[in-house]
Design brief:
Blueprint (H helix, E strand, L loop, with lengths): L2 H21 L1 H4 L1 H21 L1 H5 L8 H27 L4 H4 L5 H24 L1 H12 L6 H24 L2 H5 L15 H43 L1
Helix pairs in contact: 1-3, 5-7, 7-11, 9-11
């Protein structure tokens, strides 16, 4: 496995970690929040530079459901990230001398809205790439043969994470944050810091799981007519 490819994965994981880190504003304070956000956007630029060739394949790519969905998710992620970046600049304390007239309450609401949508869309983005991620994990761990018990355990863990993600969505009131509704339901970091991150990871896991299995279902549905056609052709021969 290429060291460059592994380095890219590590940078992407760090960027995802910084995104989660940035959600804990009331625990971190503004300085750490802005530093984490700046580092995340720098890594995002690196990610797009590494994957720049993908943009050239959009017009040439096959118009299969998975491919189209991937294109839509990628551009939605770009829009959400752009909204997050613009509002970050407008509300930045480091730029307060220049941008303070624009840093109103609505801008902060949009910033929060964009951040939570980024969390969801990044999770869907990772769900689309989960087979590749699992392939990398298998190579790193030296796993070459399938194992029924291991598969069963991993599926049980996946179900547990998805169930926890549903509960976490209510605990963090994700629905109100994704719809820009006014809410005073913020996490109390004085009670638990780890609990907040566990809830965020569970929510990410839920959307990754839903995306992965939705794609598997679509693939199975697409293969079914072909299998039926092949059986019918064999019968008539």
């Amino acid at each position: 496995m290429s060291p460059i490819f592994l380095s890219r994965l590590v940078f992407d994981l760090i960027a995802a970690g910084l995104l989660l880190f940035g959600f804990s504003y009331w625990w971190l304070g503004n300085v750490a929040h802005e530093v984490a956000g700046t580092a995340m956007f720098l890594l995002l630029i690196m990610h797009n530079v590494f994957n720049r060739r993908w943009y050239g394949t959009i017009a040439k790519g096959a118009r299969e459901p998975r491919s189209l969905f991937n294109i839509v998710v990628t551009f939605l992620l770009m829009l959400a990230m752009l909204a997050l970046l613009v509002t970050s600049v407008l509300i930045s304390n480091a730029l307060s001398g220049v941008m303070s007239p624009y840093a109103g309450f609505t801008v902060r609401q949009i910033h929060t809205l964009a951040a939570y949508w980024v969390l969801v869309i990044v999770s869907v983005h990772l769900g689309l790439r989960w087979p590749m991620i699992m392939g990398v994990a298998r190579k790193l761990m030296g796993i070459t043969q399938p194992n029924a018990l291991r598969t069963l355990v991993l599926r049980a863990v996946t179900v547990a994470i998805a169930i926890h993600g549903v509960w976490s969505s209510f605990e963090l009131a994700i629905g109100t944050k994704l719809s820009m509704q006014m809410t005073l339901d913020w996490w109390n970091f004085e009670e638990s810091v780890a609990g907040f991150f566990i809830h965020c990871l569970a929510i990410a896991g839920l959307y990754m799981c839903l995306t992965y299995y939705a794609m598997k279902w679509l693939q199975a549905r697409k293969r079914r007519p072909r299998s039926a056609a092949a059986v019918a052709e064999n019968v008539h021969q």
